[in-house]
Design brief:
The protein has 155 residues and is mainly alpha-helical. It contains 5 helices and 4 strands. The chain has one domain. Helix 1 (6-21) runs parallel beside helix 3, helix 2 packs across helix 3 (70-85) and helix 4 crosses helix 5.
């Protein structure tokens, strides 16, 4: 197995977990949030942080698009589906949940660096974890907005 196969493998594993853990009707309901809050947002963050600011780069990519593996955006979309499905309603519990999810993704980012799939430049995994906190709150906002629009159309 070459390092470039890690990208599609990670995406397939996360997609499989999201399909197994999230009921079908809910999975379908969360697709717009996953596309905007996962797929599109991951590219926006990469273009700003990776391309414009030069804070990180990816290597050993399969299906590179705009300097980032397409598979990573797919994996983040699947992660967003699981994140939103299990998101607690209580603000205090939600904060802990977001922090734990973000810390896990920060560790995953560190793993990418350790395996030579990503390089940090004036950046580190702690910054990534903090960025993931902000990203997840943007994802919650996007999902809330999309649901609000859907309810308004239903009236």
């Amino acid at each position: 197995m070459t390092l470039s196969t890690v990208w599609p493998l990670a995406a397939i594993v996360l997609l499989a977990f999201s399909i197994i853990l999230v009921p079908r009707h809910r999975w379908i309901e969360l697709i717009p949030s996953a596309v905007l809050g996962g797929f599109v947002l991951s590219y926006i963050v990469h273009i700003i942080g990776g391309t414009i600011l030069g804070l990180w780069t990816y290597s050993n990519m399969s299906l590179p698009v705009l300097g980032m593996p397409l598979w990573l955006a797919v994996a983040f979309g699947a992660e967003v589906i699981m994140f939103l499905h299990f998101l607690p309603e209580s603000p205090g519990t939600r904060l802990v949940y977001v922090i734990l999810f973000s810390a896990a993704l920060g560790l995953g980012d560190y793993g990418l660096v350790r395996f030579g799939l990503k390089a940090f430049h004036r950046w580190n995994a702690y910054y990534s974890a903090l960025l993931f906190v902000a990203i997840h709150y943007v994802v919650v906002f996007i999902d809330s907005y999309l649901r609000q629009q859907q309810r308004a159309r239903a009236k």
